[in-house]
Amino acid sequence: MKKAAIIGGGAAGLCCACELLSLAGGRVAVTLFEQKDRVGRKLLVTGNGRCNLTNRGACPDAYPKDVRAFAAPALQRFGPESTLRFFERLSLLTHTDGEGRVYPLSNQAAGVLDALRLEAVRLGAELRCGTAVTALRPAKSGWLVNGEAFDFAVLAPGGKAAARDFSDRLLRALSLPLTKTAPGLVKLQTADPLPRSLKGLRARAKLTLLLGGRKAAEETGELQFGDGTLSGIAAMNLSSVCARAALHGETQAEIAADFVPELPPDALKRLLQTVAATGQREMCEDLLSGLMVKKLGVCLLKRAGIRPDAPTRSLTGAQLDALCEQCKRCVFPITGSGAFADAQVTVGGLSQSGFDPATLESRQYENLYACGEVLDVDGPCGGFNLQWAFASARLCAASVAEKCL
Ligand SMILES: Cc1cc2nc3c(=O)[nH]c(=O)nc-3n(C[C@H](O)[C@H](O)[C@H](O)COP(=O)(O)OP(=O)(O)OC[C@H]3O[C@@H](n4cnc5c(N)ncnc54)[C@H](O)[C@@H]3O)c2cc1C
C-alpha cells in the first residue's frame, strides 16, 4: 500500500483526495493535512455563499494569455462537463445561469463542501484538521511530511487571497521556484474624484484596460463605483490583468469606460444633437436620461464642462463633442489595487516552469505534485478559479494513481 499526503484541505486538496481514492483506493492511503480546525472554510464564502463551482465556458482560451498553455492539459482533460459529472457522482446537482456559471441546486456553498468532505471520508481519507504542515523534506524514496514518511506529496495549500497564512516558507525551504505575487480579482484604486461622488452606484460599461497607453484587455459588464475604487465583475477581471502586468514592471495603467457601448460615437452624437436641437429635453441634466443612470449622466456633463441646469438648446458643437468623449471614453488613471485580504485570487505563485503541465509533477522533485491556487494560474470571475482547482487536483490524482498501479 502506497501513502500519499495532501497538504491543504481546500477545494483542490479535497477534490484530489476523492479522485485519488476513487481511482486507486486499496492501493493508496490518503492523509489530508489541514491547518484550520475544519476543511474547506474558503469554499463556504465563494460565490457569495452560493459557490460558483465551474463555468461551462472554462476552456483554456478563457484564461489569461500567460497561463493558457500551462493550464491547458488539465483543463482539456477535466473540463467543466467533466467537473459536473464528478459532482454528479457525489450526488451534487447543479444549475447553470445565462453566463454559463454553475451553482449547486441548493444555492448553498456548504452543499459543495459537504459533498467533497463526505466523499473523501467515505472513500477512507484521513482528514487531519488543525495540523499545519511545517516541515516537508524529500526522503530516500518519497517524502517526510512533519517527519512522517509518505510515497507522494501533493501541495494544495492555496494562495494569499483571503488567507492569513500562506505557506511560502514551506515552499521556499524546498527552493521551489516562486514568482512574485499580487492580489487578483480585487477592486482597482483611482485618484479620480468621479467614483467617490458616485459611491455605491452600478453602471453597465465596456471597460478597456490601457497599459502604457496601449489597449491590453477589454471587458463589458457591471462597473461599481466606490470610495476611490472601481469594482464589479468587469473591473475585477481587469484587475488581474493589471496585476500580472505590474509583476512584469508595467505600472502605468488606466481604465477607459464606455458608458454607451451599444452606440458608435457618431450615432451617439447625432442622437444628442437631435435631442438638443429639437428642445425635446429642455435641461442638460435630462440629456442622457435613458442612456445611463441619471447621477452618472450629471457627473459626465460636469466633466465635459456643461452645467446640468443649462438649456439644451444652448449647447455648442464643441460641448457636444466633449460630452460624447466623456460618455464613450471616460478615463480613470489606476493608482493601485485592494489588498490580498479583499482579493478573490492570487496572481502568481509556484512557477509554471517548475511543474510538468501534463502531470503537474515537480520537475525538481520526483513524487511531488501541486494543484489549485498555489500554482501560478488564475482565471476571471465566474467559476474559472474553482474549475482550475478541480481540474488540476484531478490531474494530480490521475498522475499519482498511475504510479500506484
Ligand atoms: C471571497 C471569495 C469568493 C470566491 N468565489 C469564487 C467563486 O464563486 N468561484 C470560483 O471559481 N472561485 C472563487 N473564489 C476563488 C476560489 O475560492 C479559489 O480559487 C479556490 O478556493 C482555490 O482552491 P485551493 O484548494 O487551491 O485553495 P484554498 O481553497 O485556499 O485551500 C487551501 C487550504 O490549504 C490550507 N493550508 C495552507 N497551508 C497549509 C499548511 N502548511 N498545512 C496545512 N494546511 C494548509 C488552508 O488553510 C486552506 O484550507 C473565491 C475566492 C474568494 C476569496
Lateral arrangement of strands in the main beta sheet: 12-15-14-13-16-17
CATH third-level topology of the largest domain:
FAD/NAD(P)-binding domain
Shape label: elongated
| Beta-strand content | 15-25%
Largest sheet: 6 strands, antiparallel, barrel
What is the domain total for the residues?
2
CATH architecture of the largest domain, by name, is: 3-Layer(bba) Sandwich
**What is the CA-CA span between the terminal residues?**
10 Å
Task: Write a structural description.
With 405 residues, the chain is α+β, with helices and mostly antiparallel strands. It folds into two domains: 2-182 and 347-404, FAD/NAD(P)-binding domain, CATH 3.50.50.60; 187-338, no CATH class. The chain has twelve helices and 19 strands. The protein has helices spanning 11-24, 41-45, 65-77, 80-89, 109-122, 168-173, 193-197, 233-247, 265-278, 294-303, 317-328, 384-404; strands at residues 2-7, 28-34, 54-55, 94-96, 101-104, 126-129, 136-139, 142-145, 148-150, 152-155, 182-184, 188-190, 202-211, 214-225, 229-231, 253-258, 330-337, 345-347, 368-370. Helix 1 (11-24) packs parallel to helix 5, helix 3 (65-77) crosses helix 12 and helix 9 (265-278) packs across helix 11. The mean pLDDT is 96. The protein binds flavin-adenine dinucleotide. The site of flavin-adenine dinucleotide (FAD) has 37 residues, from helix 1, strand 2, helix 2 and helix 12.
